[in-house]
Structures are given as structure tokens and as C-alpha cells.
Write a structure and sequence with these properties.
The protein has 15 helices and no strands. It is mostly helical and about 425 residues long. It has a domain of about 260 residues.
């Protein structure tokens, strides 16, 4: 009976994932908010088995891992802007400045305010630092378009940041594990810097680039018609590329998250305006939405079932400070001097959504080293829930207002150009 009930819940939630966007289109509610709330209610239903990620760390790790890499493929395919140091200046600032500062400030707050040991504080900072590619759909780019100039800075910055910082934060997660298992010795830190910081990152970048370029050339320009899959594109080929890039890179001891995003963007660059990208992106988005609905149901149920039992006011305040103060401030500061305007810098800073990636990193790290699991799960679960509610309720109207201002400015410039031509 319970087995059949679980299938019923899975089917009903997947159907809701298809229906809800239409139902809540004009409401200050988005899909993650709705499913998290439904999960909380589901956790209160008597007779259902408890949901405890600490009791099923391996399952939690691998399920969240799959959802994140699928979302990274979607993000890489969606970005219209060609790669470039200047074109992607906001991305580099967010990854190289905002993320390390966020990690450091959260670690410092967790240690000084909540009394976490050094390794646990560093882990909390690393786990909560990345902008999530799964839950930030309201502030990310949509489907692939033919004209890269139509991509606004807010959506581009948050999408590209989410695509890269999941892999970029992994070295710091490894550092936390090193601190917990070997301590801050020169030998341990040297090995971490060489292998986890440098080697794995380089392998992830190179592997993703090679796989993406080879498959892009094969799909779009192969002399053998049977190998030009773009001519008769099937959406599931995007999943094939996702798993291939991730698996090969992980076997080479590189960061698979980096490889998936880089491979996706390299394939997009092979033939930027081809309609195959829309088909692949649409399929990935549908799979991601269904899996995200299930995960949020489980997270909401876990919150009801006692995930927050070790939450102290100090840990809760750490999460509040991250969402409302730390990320907005360092995000805004890191973008000074870029093409983003003052309002855009604040929106980019504020909407660094926390999400599914944090669940993956935490479950992975807890399997590798000794950490205070209860307080960390409580802090991460609370912060994700806070982010889902705060960002979910405000993202759509804020971005719509920015779009309206951008359209008004474009029309004003157009009218001025017309006037000048008639002078």
C-alpha cells in the first residue's frame, strides 16, 4: 500500500509541476515555494515514512547531484552571449570576488556567532555560497535565442554565475574536508592546493571544452548525415552529453560540474542560432522541473520531520545574514565598474538563490569527513527555505520592473535617434 502511495505522490507532483506555473502565474508565488510548502504539509501527514537526509546521505548526494548537473546543462545551452573576458566580466567578478568573500564571511559568522569548529564553519560557507542553477529560474535567462544582444545583464550574470560557481566552490568543500580529517598542516594544505584547487579545476575546464567542441562539430558539421544529430534533434541527447561530460571528467579526477557547463556552452557555440538548442534546452528544462518538484517535496517533508531540530538562533541568524546582508552586499561591491547599472548590481547581488547544490555539497562532505551533521543540516535547510520564500516572493516583480525600465530606456533612445535623423 505504501509503495503504491509513493507512486501516486510522485505522479501527482509531476503533474502539478506542469500545471502550477499556469495557475500561479499572477501570484507572488513560484514553483519552488509551492512545492516546498506542499512538502511541509506532506511531512505532517501521519503514517508516511519520515524523510531524513542524514539517514540516507548517499541517496541524497546522488539524487541532488543528478538534478544539479542537468540544470547546469540547461544553463549552458541557454546563454546566448559568446564567451569572452570582457563580455563575461560580471561572471568573473561574481565567481572570483563575491563567492570567496561570501564563503569567508559566512564561515566567520558561523564560527564567531554559532560556535562552529573551523572545518565546519568553512564547510557551511562553501555549501551556502553558490548561486543555485536549479531554483534561480525566475532570474535566469530563458530559452536560447538567436540574438545575443537581447540578453540583459541581470539574467546573464546570475545564469553564468550559477553555471560556474557550483564547480568553483568545490575546492573549498574539499578544503573543509582536509581541515576535518588532516588538520591545517603544511603537507595537507599543499596537497589540497595542488590537487583539489588546481588540478581538478583545470581537468574540469579542459575536459568540458574538448567534449563540447568535439560533440558540437559532430552534431552540426559531420560529413556523415547519420552523425549530424542536430538535423533530427532529440531532446534526450542533451542528457547523454550531460552524463558523458560529467562521467568522463569525474573519472579523470576533474570537477564534473565545471565540465558539464563548459561542454554545454561549447556545443551552443558550435552553431549558435540552430533550433536544435531550443529542443534540447526544452527537454532538459522539463526533466529538471519534474526532479526539482520531487526534491522540494522531500525537503519540505524533512523540515516537518525534524531537520530543524538542531537549529539554534545563532545558526538561523547566520542564514538570515547571508540572504539579506552578506550576499547582497558582496555581490553589489564585486560588480562595481562593470556594465551593470546600480539597480542591476543590487538585483544581481540580492538574488543569489541558495538551493539544491547546497544539499549535494553537504551530503558529499559529511560522507568524507567528521562534521556536526545535525547543526549543519539545520542551518542549510533553514537557509534554503528562507531563500526560496524571500527570493521566490519577490524575484518576478523585481525583474519585471527592471525589464519595464529597460524597455522604456530603449524606446527613449529610439525616439531620440529618429529625431536626430530628421534634423
Amino acid at each position: 500500500m505504501l509503495y503504491a502511495l509513493l507512486f501516486t505522490i510522485a505522479g501527482a507532483s509531476a503533474l502539478l509541476a506542469a500545471l502550477l506555473p499556469r495557475v500561479i502565474e499572477r501570484l507572488p508565488v513560484n514553483l519552488p515555494m509551492a512545492f516546498l510548502a506542499l512538502g511541509v504539509l506532506l511531512g505532517l501527514v501521519p503514517g508516511l515514512p519520515p524523510v531524513d537526509p542524514m539517514a540516507h546521505e548517499s541517496i541524497t548526494e546522488h539524487v541532488t547531484e543528478i538534478v544539479v548537473i542537468i540544470s547546469l546543462m540547461g544553463a549552458g545551452l541557454a546563454i546566448d552571449r559568446p564567451f569572452g573576458w570582457r563580455r563575461w566580466a560580471s561572471t568573473w567578478r561574481l565567481v572570483a570576488i563575491a563567492m570567496p568573500l561570501t564563503i569567508a564571511l559566512v564561515a566567520l559568522t558561523g564560527s564567531a556567532l554559532a560556535g562552529l569548529p573551523l572545518a565546519a564553519a568553512v564547510l557551511l560557507g562553501a555549501v551556502l555560497a553558490p548561486t543555485d542553477p536549479v531554483l534561480a529560474s525566475d532570474v535566469q535567462v530563458g530559452e536560447p535565442a538567436d540574438d545575443p544582444t537581447t540578453e540583459d545583464e541581470v539574467r546573464f550574470a546570475l545564469t553564468s554565475e550559477a553555471g560556474l560557481n557550483d564547480g568553483a566552490t568545490f575546492p573549498v568543500v574539499h578544503l573543509a574536508v582536509v581541515l576535518a580529517t588532516a588538520g591545517a598542516t603544511a603537507t595537507a594544505l599543499g596537497g589540497w592546493a595542488l590537487e583539489d584547487l588546481l588540478l581538478r579545476s583545470v581537468v574540469g575546464l579542459v575536459s568540458g571544452l574538448v567534449i563540447g567542441r568535439v560533440l558540437g562539430a559532430l552534431f552540426f558539421r559531420s560529413r556523415l548525415h547519420a552523425l549530424r544529430l542536430a538535423d533530427d534533434v532529440e531532446g534526450f541527447t542533451a542528457l547523454a552529453v550531460t552524463f558523458l561530460a560529467y562521467g568522463v571528467t569525474e573519472m579523470l579526477h576533474g570537477y564534473g560540474f565545471v565540465a558539464v557547463f563548459v561542454a554545454a556552452h561549447a556545443i551552443r557555440s558550435a552553431e549558435r542560432s540552430h533550433g536544435a538548442h531550443r529542443v534540447a534546452h526544452g527537454f532538459v528544462e522539463q526533466v529538471e522541473r519534474m526532479l526539482t518538484a520531487w526534491l522540494l517535496l522531500l525537503l519540505g517533508a524533512a523540515l516537518s520531520d525534524g531537520l530543524l531540530r538542531d537549529l539554534t538562533w545563532q545558526l538561523a541568524l547566520t542564514g538570515v545574514l547571508l540572504v539579506l546582508v552578506i550576499r547582497p552586499l558582496v555581490g553589489w561591491l564585486s560588480l562595481l565598474g562593470t556594465r551593470a547599472g546600480p539597480r542591476e548590481r543590487w538585483v544581481i547581488g540580492v538574488y543569489g538563490v541558495r538551493g539544491i547544490g547546497s544539499l549535494f555539497y553537504l551530503s558529499w562532505a559529511l560522507a568524507e569527513g567528521e562534521f556536526p551533521a545535525g547543526p549543519l543540516w539545520a542551518a542549510v535547510g533553514f537557509t534554503i527555505a528562507l531563500s526560496v520564500v524571500v527570493h521566490g516572493a519577490t524575484a518576478a516583480p523585481v525583474v519585471q520592473r527592471l525589464d519595464a525600465r529597460r524597455l522604456l530606456r530603449a524606446r527613449s533612445r529610439g525616439s531620440a535617434d529618429i529625431a536626430r535623423t530628421h534634423v
